[in-house]
């Protein structure tokens, strides 16, 4: 049987101020223990002794698709008191999964210490009609994170993902211009999902029937790309977490063109290549039309959330 050296929580949390060693060792220990458990080398008793439990999320990144949800989750996971569900669970937006019940959902969560908080992200939650009520029924005081990007850029990013999927299957696909503009009226095609998803205020209004605005935190996805730390510090505050993520944990990788994550001197990682795709060039008149279309919805969004963005 493997001999495991526990790393003890300090003041109910891991880590020493400004040091990344302890949180990392704690994480490594936790992962190592689970790995050994799966291999049959660690007993259930050891798991129990170290008080590891699978917890229902206390916060969920509900969207927006292509807003930077993965980057946000991975970056928050740098915090020693946060554990992430690695996969998108799609519990609340998928009827089949939802029918499996809350215990099924909990069992999908990673093991964590009781003082830690679990976070999951499923970007489809934001736009799926049934989700707010379902989440409310589970926990009416849950914290909800929404990461948004300039709506036209987000729509193009959304299109780019679908286009890449088609190309992978050697299929042709319409141009973004054709999908986003109705050829009969020459107006913005609001039936096109990539456009609809970017009307943030419409979706948020549905959520507000269940949750007060104070339970939401809006993350600026464009700023998370260029200057992630201040955005993460705002989230730490919203989640009532002590500030632990530092500039040390984030370094700019010029080859990737994005910030990557540093856990310690030996362990760092960038997001997968499917994040940060090159967008196709889009006709400037279409961009202008879309920006004009989104403008009043954006104004409403700023008004409701109390967070203003410099979107054109
Ligand atoms: N650090 C870092 N590294 C890589 N990518 C980053 C990062 N921060 C934000 N982003 C942006 O995240 C965009 C993908 O958003 P999502 O993760 O929400 O996509 S998804 O809905 O889960 O498919 C993705 O959008 P595209 O650039 O359009 O591909 C990225 O721009």
UniProtKB/TrEMBL annotation:
User: What are the entry keywords?
Assistant: Glycoprotein, Transferase
Top-level division of the source organism's lineage: Eukaryota
Q: A single Pfam family, by name?
A: Sulfotransfer_1
Q: Which InterPro entries match?
A: NST/OST, P-loop_NTPase, Sulfotransferase_dom
Q: Cite the EC number.
A: 2.8.2.-
Outline the extent of the Sulfotransferase domain: 58-301
Q: Which family does it belong to?
A: Belongs to the sulfotransferase 1 family.
Name it: Sulfotransferase
């Amino acid at each position: 049987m493997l001999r495991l050296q526990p790393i003890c929580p300090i003041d109910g949390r891991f880590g020493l101020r400004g040091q990344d060693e302890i949180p990392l060792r704690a994480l490594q220990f936790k992962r190592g223990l689970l790995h050994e458990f799966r291999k049959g080398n660690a007993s259930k008793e050891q798991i129990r002794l170290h008080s590891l439990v699978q917890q229902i999320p206390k916060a969920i990144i509900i969207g927006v698709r292509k807003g930077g949800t993965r980057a946000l989750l991975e970056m928050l996971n740098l915090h020693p008191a946060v554990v992430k569900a690695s996969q998108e669970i799609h519990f609340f937006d998928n009827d089949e999964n939802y029918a499996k019940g809350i215990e099924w959902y909990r069992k999908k969560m990673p093991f964590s210490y009781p003082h830690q908080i679990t976070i999951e992200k499923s970007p489809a939650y934001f736009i799926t009609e049934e989700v707010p009520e379902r989440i409310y029924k589970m926990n009416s005081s849950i914290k909800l994170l929404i990461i948004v990007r300039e709506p036209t850029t987000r729509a193009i990013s959304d299109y780019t993902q679908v286009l890449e999927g088609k190309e992978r299957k050697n299929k042709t696909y319409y141009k973004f211009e054709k999908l986003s503009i109705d050829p009969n009226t020459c107006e913005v095609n609001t039936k096109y999902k990539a456009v609809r998803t970017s009307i943030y205020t419409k979706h948020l209004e549905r959520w507000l029937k269940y949750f007060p605005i104070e339970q939401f935190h809006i993350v600026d996805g464009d700023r998370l790309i260029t200057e992630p730390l201040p955005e993460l510090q705002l989230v730490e505050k919203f989640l009532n977490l002590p500030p632990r993520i530092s500039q040390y944990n984030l370094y700019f990788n010029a080859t990737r063109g994005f910030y990557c994550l540093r856990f310690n001197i030996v362990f760092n990682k960038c997001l997968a290549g499917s994040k940060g795709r090159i967008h196709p060039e889009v006709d400037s008149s279409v961009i202008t039309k879309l920006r004009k279309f989104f403008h009043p919805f954006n104004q409403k969004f700023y008004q409701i959330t109390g967070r203003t963005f410099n979107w054109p």
